[in-house]
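Hello, quick one for you while I still have it in my head. A protein chain has come my way and I'm curious about its shape. I'm sending you its amino acid sequence along with the backbone structure tokens. I'd be grateful if you could look everything over and explain what you see. Here's the protein in full, and shout if anything looks odd to you:
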Amino acid sequence: MVYFQLSRVGFNCGLDKNECDKYPDFCIECVKTQIKRFGLDANPNIKITLIDSEEKRIKLFQDIIWQKFLDVLNIKHILLMVKDSGLPIVNYPISGAGVDVELLTGFIQANITFSESSDTLKNIENNGNNHQFYEFQYHTFNILLKNRELIRICLVLDHKSSESLKILVTEFLSDFEDRYLHKLEKLISKGKLSFQDTIDFIIETFNIKLVFPMTLTHTILPDRMEAIKKNPIQKAIIDFASALLASKQFFFIINLIDEVQKIVNIDANKILYEIYNLLEQEIIIPTTIESAENKILKFQESQAIRLAHNELISPIIANDDAMDELKEKAKNMSEEEIKKAIDSFVKKAETAEKALIYKEAQREYEKALYLATGFDFHEDIGRISFMVLELDKKIKSLELEYAQTAAEKAEKRKDYIKAINYYKQSLRILQDAAIFDESESKIRKFEKKITNLQKYL
């Protein structure tokens, strides 16, 4: 049996407090009774908080999310070690703090040895389960350390840890050892073992995605867009995020909050709450700098090969008279004229893209990129390459959405041949594009779908 405990699960009793005779004195007992009806345990250490209005509920979550954000901003480096030997098993830098892990682990071992042998344990807090927190200074950083049965965690912090972060660390250690117990036992008995597959769990637990570079989704459903327009804070967030992405490949939440606050006089925690909601709805999407740079690099390499063979990205303009004319004109243009032409093509492309005329936008972007590449304007090449890559992703997203929807509808009609063809089309888009996050899991999903549907033929 696996036993689960639920944290921060909300429950709406469905009654108006003004019409309930038991409110507020018997609310807790009433909720416990309802919990038992759901087949859940209402054990003695359960904590139930009464929130008697929607405003208070939202305020509670605003404060919780804001504290999460402050905590992750404080973390500069996460280090997991085997408790007894001090052997590092996960070394995860969050910022460019430049921590020397070898020196740090030696410093930690020396401090723990001294602390445990000293009569007065300096800066140590006991949390009541014989697993202590160790806190001390290391260069300009604050170190938060905690042991469990098999592992030790070290957080390199800018400032002293909050109580909420300490609680999170305690929960993380327990969950990590339970989740990866077999792997940890194997490591201790047989030696070195990779724990790279645990990084996602660390990112999720410590909310590290909140400090990741962010982009916007390329397709927002009409009803979702209508809801955003009715929410002035979310509308401002999307507008400012779009403005930041016009000049950069991604943005950071902290910068987005600053930009919104310059225009909208509202508390930062309220802005973050709406950003968090957009993250949950996958309208704002976390990525990594390495991922964004790799995509652009691959795109530029592909572009260089095409240009070397006098080819263009899109076959649309391969026989375009305007493109041929541009090639001839470019031979006699000055550097200043080229710069002006690039800006002009980019503006036309952006206008076409906003009007959803994607093929026209693609045509104009590629003219700008052709000139930038020919004159070796590195900054313009990077900027326009990203714009073309994002537009290509937007087009592919629409193609993928159409093919997937068509496949699902055909499957429901039991038209299995058509369903298989559309799933194969979806598969080709993912395999050819290689620009989608989590494309591997989607590829596996479509391959499984095709295999299952083929059984009906």
Remarks:
- The mean pLDDT is 79.
- The radius of gyration is 28 Å.
- The chain has 17 helices and eight strands.
